[in-house]
UniProtKB/TrEMBL annotation, chain A:
It comes from the Bacteria. NDH-1 is composed of 13 different subunits. Subunits NuoA, H, J, K, L, M, N constitute the membrane sector of the complex. It is a multi-pass membrane protein. This is NADH-quinone oxidoreductase subunit N.
TrEMBL record, chain B:
Residues 134-429 form the NADH:quinone oxidoreductase/Mrp antiporter transmembrane domain. It is a multi-pass membrane protein. One of its GO terms (biological process) is electron transport coupled proton transport. GO terms for molecular function: NADH dehydrogenase (ubiquinone) activity; NADH dehydrogenase activity; ubiquinone binding. GO terms for cellular component: endomembrane system; membrane. Belongs to the complex I subunit 4 family. NCBIfam families: NDH_I_M (TIGR01972), PRK05846.1-1 (NF004498). The lineage of its organism: Bacteria, Pseudomonadati, Pseudomonadota, Gammaproteobacteria, Pseudomonadales. Keywords: Membrane, Oxidoreductase, Transmembrane, Transmembrane helix. This is NADH-quinone oxidoreductase subunit M. It is found in: Endomembrane system; Membrane.
Length: 485, 510
């Protein structure tokens, strides 16, 4: 197949990100300079973000049998690039400048994060099992390095190794599942697989097993129960900006491809698999929320809460018809905004790097009296995670409930209600800690001028956006409304 | 344009209070006072100029004294749709008045973070006004949930932990939040269910009150959706057995928080029943009425017995609210115009008298630093004015003729007697227990042997004005309730028609 200029325009976000990787690498080879690498990365990501607009003009377009650039892919590319940008900005603050901050080589972090982002971009446009696997590995492998980036810290190293081993296990499941699917349908393209399954009416046992194993593999990345065991340790061990990346860009990309797979081959979700997904959803919601209750570490707590949030998303996945895709898109956008904000606060509190992140709850005690605006940011994020009106989280939750009611999924909707009620408890616990009397023992605090730095400005922007979209969500809904499958 | 301002004024005022703290701790208090006065004046002005013969009624599109509509989220047909009729106006007036009082009563009590405190206080009141005005169901829910957050802060940050340290203020605040949030989500599911049924019938997706009223529901669906609404309102009202958050929240909250909780937040539930649950699901409500009335009956007695057993004066008043709300519940589901009018008066009167009792117990706490009645006693001659005024409000609370509470309870009982004589008869005997716990409160706190020789400071002007003002209003309500009854009559007539028709249909079906 010939590649025309149209195809290159459609691929522009991916190409520009890839070029940025090379440029940053050459830049490091030429001269080690933290700011230089940071600026190159940010410039590249911004260009990639801008190039989504022309790509949208030529969409939908099939570029080789592997990738399809449509408005859905463009939306997810946008989310991935924006969250990568945010993480990079946070990483810059985290690594620090001059003597203060991270003692090792700082520049490679940008390289790794860019590569992971490129993997994410491939993943959300994938319509073929081969590109799915390439994208997923390109996304995961750099993340091993990222998680263990603070390797002289025991927890970070532990997290990195844990993530690597479990991720490899997940990939093995994924490959086995793909092989079974190929054996059954004789093709690797999503739509061909869908047709082959639809032709037999119900998925055959082998196809079900194949899809189930793929679900296991992807479930590892999404940390759905019962494949969630790595999540809290890795979140805790990873440097805060990396944890933010893991919670946002990485998960969004994987969920994007899952949505595309199950939407293009709808027959795949019928039968046993639908029940399996329902069980996974309920288990994720309940386990995630219940285990979060006792956490005294903010990063672990956010890890468990993200398990629960992907449980909520699975409700829409099970519904799969009607508003489901729209609901997933809206929810992911609100989730990304909120997670970035929450991890952003943790990052700024731990900036510049000094051994251990400020993630213990007692370090946030009485933060309101020391950093009122940073506290306001975290408060909005906690309320948004809990899904309280006036924040975006409410709009997302509203959508999921609407989807559940529309599809008559009463048990799933019920578990969402129960899960939110449990969730409120620990979100409130974090929130009220911020306002209690000041504790005398503090190791960490955000720098006084945090709000004048790039990371702080970005964080305030995210907060305003989270608030604005909670009050007036129409722009978001219009944007997402064009991005169906 | 006046309706959005009624909501915006408290929100803006709250932000001003917060920033005003930079210029000293007194400025936020004055800003808050001004904000709430403005709100009340605006309400009074609407009262004097509006015609309250317009109110929603079955058969036709609802008519309103004032209405405001603005597109909000087109995707779901959600609009900023505000409307006001007699019932909402009365509730807003109560909100404004109690708003002023809650600012005044925290004038000395709150000394930490004054600006942030008043931000929360104003936002609660703004949210409550939003609940009373919103007739788009999404918006109603939006405000319903939104007002929880500042209330949570108010209890968690400025509350008092119980003396034995077992129940902290954060425990109480979290309990309050989780109860209302979870029940609220059940209501959201019911709202969405209603909207989707409407969507399947007409192809139009909307959260508008007027449209949803026309939805035709099958028997089972209607009953389930009604239950969804009822549970949310039952938690907030509160109805036994969903009441357990209330005594904790009340006891641990600062005075202003208790005043707002008892005075207005509980009334949002009764308002929600009257505005949404009954008109939207009249047939299911009629069928459910006996159960609801029995629940009300249980509430009356359970609240009264537990109030009697309390040693904490604020918990006693809190349980007395449970008891009083039982009467409201019976009145709401009786389906008679008289009883419904009584409900309105009872809501107002309870708002005033409970607020006054909480303010008085707050003043007592400022002097004695305890709320435990076992450590009080013999205070009658030791604090100027306070015991006597407490006696007055205790008498009002037990329904003494001449006070608004009497009018309310009398109308509720006489109205309900026609349709449910047995329940009414039993409920009436609940009044006896009301007298018992009210009087025992006075007896334990102010009579008997004195526990210490200390003489306490008498009431100052601010404290006197607050409670005397309330006393005057309560007496006015007791001797001349006609203006109130006139204002709410059209609304209550509408509700009565909805429920009355359903009752006759139910009777003929049996």
């Amino acid at each position: 197949m010939d590649l025309t200029i149209q195809h290159f325009i459609a691929l522009a976000p991916l190409l520009i990100t890839s070029i940025t990787i090379v440029v940053v690498m050459l830049g490091i080879a030429w001269r080690r300079n933290h700011s230089q690498s940071f600026l190159l990365t940010v410039a590249g990501l911004n260009l990639a973000l801008l190039s989504i607009y022309p790509a949208l003009k030529v969409a939908p377009l099939v570029v080789t049998p592997l990738l399809q650039i449509d408005s859905f892919a463009c939306l997810y590319m946008g989310i991935i690039l924006v969250s990568t940008l945010a993480c990079v900005t946070l990483a810059h603050a985290y690594l620090g400048e001059g003597k203060a901050g991270y003692p090792g080589n700082r520049e490679e972090l940008y390289l790794l994060i860019l590569m992971a982002a490129a993997g994410g971009l491939v993943l959300v446009a994938a319509q073929h099992l081969a590109s799915l696997f390439i994208g997923l590995e390109l996304l995961s492998v750099p993340v091993y390095g990222l998680v263990a980036y603070a390797f002289f810290n025991k927890r970070s190293l532990e997290g990195g190794i844990k993530y690597m081993v479990l991720s490899a296990a997940g990939s093995a499941f994924l490959l086995f599942g793909m092989a079974l699917l190929y054996a059954e349908s004789g093709s690797l393209g999503f739509s061909e697989i869908g047709k082959a399954i639809a032709a037999t009416g119900m998925p055959s046992p082998i196809a079900s097993l194949g899809l189930g194993m793929m679900l296991v593999g992807l479930g590892f990345k999404l940390s759905l129960v019962p494949f969630h065991l790595w999540t809290p340790d890795v979140y805790e061990g990873a440097p805060a900006p990396v944890a933010a990346f893991l919670a946002t860009a990485s998960k969004v990309a994987v969920f994007g491809v899952l949505v595309r797979l199950f939407q293009i081959s709808p027959a795949a979700t019928s039968g046993v698999l639908s029940d399996v997904m329902s069980v996974i959803a309920v288990a994720s919601i309940l386990v995630g929320n219940l285990l979060a209750l006792t956490q005294n570490n903010l990063k672990r707590l956010l890890g468990y809460s993200s398990i629960a949030h992907f449980g909520y998303l699975m409700i829409a996945m099970v519904a799969s018809k009607g508003m489901a895709v729209e609901a997933i898109n809206v929810y992911l956008v609100t989730y990304v905004l909120t997670s970035l904000g929450a991890f952003g606060v943790v990052t700024l509190m731990s900036s510049p790097y000094s051994g251990r992140d400020a993630d213990a709850m007692f370090e946030y005690r009485g933060l309101f009296w020391r950093r009122p605006y940073l506290t306001a940011v975290l408060t909005v994020m906690m309320l948004s995670l809990a899904g309280i009106p006036l924040t975006t989280g409410f709009i997302g939750k509203f959508y999921i409930i609407a989807t559940g009611v529309e599809a008559h999924l009463w048990w799933l909707t019920g578990s969402l209600v129960v899960g939110s009620a449990i969730g409120v408890f620990y979100y409130l616990r974090v929130m009220v800690t911020l306002y209690l009397q000041d504790s005398k023992i503090q190791r960490h605090d955000a720098p006084f001028n945090w709000a004048q730095r790039a990371g702080g400005v970005m964080l305030l922007g995210i907060t305003l956006l989270a608030f604005f979209l909670g009050v007036y969500p129409q722009p978001l809904l219009t944007l997402v409304g064009h991005a169906g499958l | 344009m006046i309706l959005p301002w009624l909501i915006l004024i408290p929100f803006i005022g709250g932000l001003l209070c917060w920033q005003g703290e930079r210029f000293g701790p007194t400025l936020p208090r004055w800003i808050a006072l001004l904000t709430m006065s403005l709100e009340t004046i605006l309400g009074l002005w609407v009262w004097s100029t509006g015609t309250f013969t317009y109110a929603p009624a079955p058969g036709a599109d609802p008519t309103w004294a004032l209405e405001f509509k603005l597109q909000w989220i087109q995707r779901f047909g959600i609009s900023v749709h505000l409307a006001l009729d007699g019932l909402s106006l009365l509730m807003i007036l109560l909100t404004g008045l109690l708003g002023i009082l809650s600012v005044l009563c925290s004038w000395k009590e709150i000394q930490r973070n004054v600006g942030f405190f008043h931000l929360n206080l104003m936002w609660i009141l703004g949210g409550v006004v939003g609940v009373f005005l919103a007739i788009d169901l999404f918006m109603f829910f939006f405000f319903w949930e939104m007002m929880l957050v500042p209330m949570y802060f108010l209890i968690a940050l400025w509350g008092h932990s119980s003396a034995d340290g077992k129940k902290t203020r954060i425990y109480a605040a979290t309990k309050f939040f989780i109860f209302t949030q979870a029940s609220g989500l059940i209501m959201l599911v019911a709202i969405l269910g209603l909207v989707l049924v409407h969507f399947n019938q007409t192809g139009v997706i909307t959260f508008g009150y007027a449209d949803l009223l026309k939805t035709k529901l099958s028997h089972g669906t209607e009953y389930i959706l009604m239950l969804g609404f009822f549970i949310a309102f039952a938690v907030k009202l509160p109805i036994v057995p969903l009441h357990s958050w209330l005594p904790d929240a009340h006891a641990q909250a600062p005075t202003a928080g208790s005043v707002d909780l008892a005075g207005i937040l509980l009334k949002t539930a009764a308002y929600g029943l009257l505005r949404f649950a009954l008109p939207l699901f009249p047939n299911a409500s009629a069928e459910f009425a006996p159960i609801a009335m029995v629940l009300g009956l249980i509430g009356i007695f359970y609240g009264a017995f537990l109030a009697f057993a309390q040693t904490d004066i604020k918990r006693l008043i809190a349980f007395s609210s449970v008891s009083h709300m039982g009467f409201v519940l019976i009145g709401i589901y009786s389906g008679s115009q008289q009883a419904l009018q009584g409900v309105v008066v009872q809501m107002l009167a309870h708002g005033l008298s409970a607020a006054a009792l909480f303010i008085l117990s707050g003043q007592l706490y400022e002097r004695l630093h305890t709320r435990d009645m076992r450590e009080m006693g013999g205070l009658w001659s030791k604090i100027a004015y306070l015991p006597a005024i407490s006696l007055f409000f205790a008498a009002a609370s037990l329904g003494l003729p001449g006070t608004g509470n009497f009018v309310g309870e009398f109308l509720i009982l006489i109205g309900s007697f026609v349709s449910a004589p047995w329940i009414t008869a039993i409920a009436t005997s609940g009044l006896v227990f009301g007298s018992v716990y009210s009087l025992i409160m006075i007896h334990r706190a102010y009579f008997g042997p004195a526990k210490s020789d200390a003489v306490y400071k008498g009431m100052d002007g601010r404290e006197l004005i607050m409670v005397l003002g309330l006393a005057v209003l309560l007496i006015l309500l007791g001797v001349y309730p006609q203006p109130i009854l006139d204002t709410s009559s059209a609304t209550m007539h509408g509700v009565q028609q909805w429920l009355g028709t359903a009752f006759t249909q139910l009777a003929s079906a049996r």
